[in-house]
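Protein record
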Amino acid sequence: FNHNINPIFNHNINPIFNHNINPIFNHNINPIFNPNFNGYYLYNTQTQQTAYLVQANDEIILMFNNDSNLQAIGVKNSINGFTLFDNNNNWIGTMISDTQSGFIFFSQSNQQIGYVK
């Protein structure tokens, strides 16, 4: 695993150490506190909002649940989307770019489980 994209080793992309990308400390990136939040939201296939995403840099996106707990880390992939890993570095899915500045979220078994807007 590349240590530059692993938040355990790279504190610049670890929200525990970098409070600029931690919505608990930075209310500008927290939709609970910022009504003008311009990040992404994850919706399930029933259109319920289940999480929000914060861009750590051009290569990394962080997924937080609605209680602002880190749920997944997305690493930019070769198809202009993100490959997502849980907090234990297990692959949990892939976000593929759609035609409307968002993403379609697929599980490891290639089933659509939501979308990101």
About this structure: The chain has a mean pLDDT of 91.
